[in-house]
Amino acid sequence: MPTAIAVTSADLVLPPTDQQTPTAATLQAPEAQSLDLAIGDMNLLLEQHGHVVAVYPAGIGAAHERRLHAIRSVLESDRIALLRTDLPPLGVAVLVRQLRQLSVCDFSPGVVASAARLLAHYIHAGALLNSVARLDRVPVSLKTHAKSWVPGSQFAVLAGPSPQLVRISPSAEPPTGPPFTTQLMVAKGQLTSEWVQQTLAPAWGVQAVQECALPSGSPRWWGTGKLVEFASFLPDISVIYQLVSSVRRENCHWCGMELIGDRCAFCSSPLAPPENRKHSPGVLSHGAPAPPAT
Could you tell me which residues belong to the region Disordered (predicted)? Predict the structure, then answer.
C-alpha cells in the first residue's frame, strides 16, 4: 500500500490528476472529533499504509497542532511524519497533491516525506488582495500599509518561494514568476477580478489555468476574505519524479529512515555531520536543483 498522506482540512485535498492518484486522509480539529477517535483513525491509517505523512499549514489553530503531536506521542509511533509548512493554504493543497502522486511511485516513505521541502521550492504561491493592512506573513512596509487604505487598491503578493509585493496599476509589472513550465491553480474569494487569469497567467507563461474552491483557512492566512489566491506548480509527475530522484539519498543516523535533504521528516533529526559521511550534504541545504527539462 502507498504511504498515507494526511491533511488538517478536507478543502486541502484537490481533485486527483489521474486515476492512480490516491486521496488524502483528514485529521480533524479537536472541536470536531474526540482524541480517542482521532487516535483510532490514525492507528487505522498506520495499519493500512504502514506510514503516514501529515502536512499542515503554519496557520492552523494551536490546539489542532498540539492534537497532531499528542496523537503521535500516544501511539509512540516513529511512522508518523508531521510536516509544518509556511506555504499559504492553496500552496499546501498543491504540495499535498504532488505528495499524493509520489506516494504511489517507487519511493520509500522517508523520501516521500522529505520531498515536501524540495517541492515547496517550486511552488509560487500568492494572492491578489484588496488590502494588506492585516497581512503579517509577508513583509509589508508602512508606506504600503498606508496605500492599502486607498479605496480600490489591489496588491499582488507572492509568499514563496521568495516574498514579493506589487501594487496593481496599469504600468506595474506582475511579481516575478517561475523560470520553468508550470500550470496555475486559482481559488477565488470575495474579490471580483480577472487579473490573475488575464494578466498574471500570460506573464508567467503557464500551460493551463485550473480553478478550485478557496480553502477555508485562506482568509485568515492572508488577513482578508477579499482575495484571489493562486499557486503555480509542476504538473507533470514524470518531471516531479526525476526531480526527487536526482537528489542524493541518505539514511537517518537516528531512526534509519531514508531521506533527501538535511533533516529526517519522521524524527526531525538533522543529517549526520559531514565528517561522519563520505560525501557532501544534500542539495536542500544549498538550494534546490533546477527541474528537469520538459
Answer: 273-294
The helix/strand/coil state of 116 is: helix
User: Which DSSP symbol is given to 196?
Assistant: I
pTM over 0.85: yes
The total of other beta-carbon atoms located within 10 Å of residue 150's CB is: 9
Domains and CATH numbers, the chain: 4-122+238-285 (3.40.50.10440), 124-233 (3.30.1180.10)
Give the count of alpha carbons within 13 A of 98, CB side only. Answer: 31
For helices 35-49 and 62-75, angle between their N-to-C axes, nearest 10 degrees: 60
Burial of 267 (0-12, 13-18, 19+ CB in 10 A): middle
3-state secondary structure of 218: helix
Rounded distance between C-alpha atoms, residue 224 and residue 129, angstroms: 7
**CB under 8 Å to 122, separation ≥6 — which residues?**
161, 178, 180, 233, 234, 243, 288, 291
> SS3 for 39-85, per residue?
HHHHHHHHHHHCCEEEEEECCCCHHHHHHHHHHHHHHCCCCEEEEEE
